[in-house]
Amino acid sequence: xxxEIPATWDEVYLLFPKQKCxxxxxxxxxxxxFRRSNLLAYAGRKNxxxxxxxxxxxxxxxxxxxxxxxxxxxxxVRGHAQRRGIKxxxxxxxxxxxxxxxxxxxxxxxxxxCTYCRRLYSTMLxxxxxxxMDIIDPAxxxxxxxxxxxxxxxxxxxxxDMPPDMWARKLRFWREWEANQLRMPQPPIQLNLIDLLPLAxxxxxxxxxxxx
Length: 212
Ligand SMILES: [Zn+2]
Ligand SMILES: [Zn+2]
Fold this sequence. Notes:
With 212 residues, the protein is mainly alpha-helical.
C-alpha cells in the first residue's frame, strides 16, 4: 500500500486565500508567501506585505551587493548640499555632482593617495570612510569638474574653509617639517624605569655591603 495524495488536495488548496505580489505579479498562497505587516495587523484585510517573500529576499540581496562607492557618493552629495542649505537634487544639477561621477572619483582616488598629504588610503585605518570630497576654493562655487578634489578625512577637516593659498602654505610647511625630521640625528636610546630598577637595587645592595 503506498501513500497517495488525496484527490481532494488541489481543491483544499484552492480554499486558502491567495494574494497577488505587486512585484512579480504572481498569485500565491497568502499565508506562506507574504509576511504580515505589524503596522497593519489590526487594520482588517490588508495586513500582509504587498510584495512576496521571494521578491523581498531578492531586494535585500541586491542591496547587500550595492557598490559601496555609490552609497558613499550619495552620502557625500547629501552632506555638501546640506552644508549649503539646498536640496540634494538641486546641488547635483547646479554644480554637476552626478552620483555616478562622484562615485568614480572616489573609487579612483581610493586606489591612490590623498591629493594633499600623499598618504595611501590603504595605509589609513578607516576604510572607505577615509576618503572625502573637498571643495578646493570654498569661496567659489563648487563645480565638480573645476573646484573639487578627493582627499583624506584628516586633510579635509584640517583644511576646513581655509583659502587655497593658505592651505598650500600649510602643506608646504608639513613637507619641510617632514624633510627636517629625516635629517635629524637619531635620538639617544631611551631606558625606561623598569630596565633601570634592578640596576639601582644592585648598586644600593653592593654599596651597603662595602660600607658597614
Ligand atoms: Zn513576488
Ligand atoms: Zn590627506
